[in-house]
Write a structure and sequence with these properties.
By secondary structure, the protein is of the alpha+beta class. Helix content is 43%, strand content 14%. It has 2 domains: 8-144, no CATH class; 149-369, Aminoglycoside phosphotransferase (APH), C-terminal lobe (Aminoglycoside 3'-phosphotransferase, Chain: A, domain 2, Alpha-Beta Complex). The strands form 3 sheets. Strands 1, 2, 3, 4, 5 and 6 form a 6-stranded antiparallel sheet that branches. The longest helix is centred in the last third of the chain and has 28 residues, at 305-332. The chain is globular, with a radius of gyration of 21 Å. The two termini are 37 Å apart. Belongs to the aminoglycoside phosphotransferase family. Catalyzes the GTP-dependent phosphorylation of 5-hydroxy-L-lysine. Residues 1-20 are annotated as: Disordered. Residues 111-279 form the Aminoglycoside phosphotransferase domain.
Length: 371
C-alpha cells in the first residue's frame, strides 16, 4: 500500500523552489472567493475586537505560506510538492478530523463554499533557474485558529512537559487502527529514512559537525535498522515539537497540537523521539526535560524494550536532520528567519547529547518509560 512519489531527497530540494509566492492582497481575494472569509463588521472592529482583528498577518512556515486572518482563521497555501499529492492532503484533513472527534484540540479544516475542505488555486512565481514567470496549482486550506501559547514560548515546567507527553500519547492512541494511503510516502523527515540525510552532509559547515552527523547515521545503520522488524508501525504526527504543542493563554495547561504537515506512517517510537529531541534545545540538563516528556507519553503508550533501546539514536537522528536541513534550507531561503530557529541550538544539543555516556542515557530513559 504505497503512493507513487519521487525520491525524498529530490522532493526536499523541490520544496524550497516551489514554496508559494503570494501577497496578502491575493491571499485575501482567494479566501473571500473560495471560503467567504471576511473581516469583522466595521463597528465590531472598533468596539469589540480591536486592531488585531482587522489584520492579516503572515506567519512563519518551513515550506508553505500561512496567514492569520482576523485572529479567527489560519489560511494555508501548500508548497508545490505536497500540492502535487492530493492523497496526502486528504489524509491530513481526515487525521485532524479524527483527533477533533477524539477530544483533542487542533486547528481543524473549515469547509469551502463547495463543501470541500481544500481547494486548488493557481499562483504565479518566478522560476529560479530560468527567471521566467510560471503558473502552477497550489492546495489552499482554511483552518480554525486556536488562541494560546506554544510550549516553546513559555516556561517548560516538569508538570507541563508531562502534560505534553501525555497529549502526544493521546494522539497516538487516536491513530491506532487508523490508516490512509496518503501517509504511505517516502519522506525525508521520516526517521525510518535517516540514511537519506547523507546526501545533505556536504551542506554542513565545519568538519567536526560533519563527522558528528556521519557518526550518528552510522549508529542508526548499525543499531536501529537491525531492530526494524520489531518496531511497531503507526500513523504519527511526526513533528510534535515545542512550537506545535499548544498551552493556554496563561501557560499553565497543555491544550492542543498543531501543524500536521509532516505526517507519515512510520515506527511508533519515532513520535516521542522527535518530541524529546526538540525539548532538548537550549537546555543545560538535556535529559531532565526529555525524560519528563517520555514519562507523560508512557502514561498513554507503553513502549516495548526494543523501542526504548533505539530512543537515543533516533533522538540524535532528528537533531542531526533538523540542523543539517536548516543549513540547506537557509541557503535556499536566506531571508526566512524561521529556518534558523533550531539550527545552532540543534547543533549544541546534538553535541551535548552525543557526548553523554550511552549507558547513562539508556538507563535514564528506561526509568522514565516505566515511572
Amino acid at each position: 500500500m504505497t503512493t507513487r512519489r519521487q525520491d525524498p531527497v529530490a522532493e526536499e530540494m523541490r520544496r524550497k523552489d516551489e514554496k508559494p509566492s503570494i501577497s496578502i492582497r491575493k491571499a485575501r481575494e482567494l479566501a473571500l472567493e473560495h471560503f467567504n472569509l471576511r473581516g469583522p463588521h466595521p463597528l465590531d472592529r472598533i468596539f469589540r475586537f480591536g486592531r488585531q482583528a482587522t489584520r492579516i498577518i503572515p506567519l512563519n512556515s518551513y515550506d508553505d505560506r500561512n496567514f492569520l486572518f482576523y485572529r479567527k482563521r489560519m489560511v494555508k497555501f501548500y508548497n508545490g510538492v505536497e500540492s502535487g499529492h492530493p492523497a496526502f492532503i486528504d489524509a491530513q484533513g481526515r487525521a485532524m478530523a479524527r483527533c477533533k472527534a477524539g477530544g483533542i484540540l487542533t486547528n481543524a479544516p473549515v469547509l469551502a463554499k463547495d463543501g470541500k475542505d481544500v481547494v486548488f488555486v493557481e499562483l504565479v512565481r518566478k522560476d529560479e533557474g530560468s527567471g521566467e514567470l510560471v503558473t502552477r496549482k497550489h492546495a489552499m486550506r482554511v483552518l480554525e485558529f486556536i488562541p494560546g501559547k506554544v510550549l516553546g514560548d513559555i516556561e517548560q515546567t516538569d508538570d507541563l512537559l508531562v502534560q505534553a507527553g501525555e497529549l502526544i500519547g493521546r494522539v497516538d492512541e487516536v491513530f491506532q487502527n487508523f490508516d490512509h494511503i496518503g501517509f504511505h510516502r517516502n519522506h525525508l523527515w521520516d526517521l525510518k529514512h535517516s540514511l537519506k540525510l547523507r546526501e545533505f552532509v556536504g551542506h554542513i559547515r565545519g568538519g567536526s559537525r560533519k563527522e558528528l552527523v556521519v557518526r550518528v547515521l552510522q549508529e542508526f545503520e548499525d543499531k536501529v535498522l537491525p531492530l526494524s522488524g520489531k518496531l511497531r508501525e503507526s500513523v504519527i504526527h511526526n513533528d510534535a515539537n515545542d512550537q506545535n504543542i499548544l498551552a493556554d493563554e496563561k501557560g499553565k495547561e497543555v491544550i492542543g497540537i498543531l501543524d500536521w504537515g509532516d505526517m507519515v506512517k512510520s515506527w511508533l517510537v519515532c513520535e516521542i523521539a522527535i518530541a524529546m529531541a526538540y525539548v532538548m534545545l537550549n537546555k543545560e540538563d538535556i535529559l531532565k526535560d526529555a525524560s519528563s516528556l517520555l514519562k507523560g507519553y508512557c502514561k498513554r503508550v507503553q513502549l516495548r524494550e526494543c523501542e526504548v533501546k533505539v530512543l537515543r539514536t533516533l533522538i540524535a537522528c532528528r537533531l542531526a536532520c533538523s540542523s543539517t536541513m536548516s543549513a540547506y534550507s537557509a541557503s535556499k531561503d536566506p531571508d526566512n528567519k524561521y529556518l534558523l530557529l533550531t539550527q545552532e541550538p540543534g547543533w549544541k544539543a546534538l553535541e551535548a547529547f552525543m557526548a553523554l555516556p550511552e549507558d547513562v542515557v539508556s538507563k535514564t530513559f528506561a526509568r522514565a518509560a516505566t515511572a
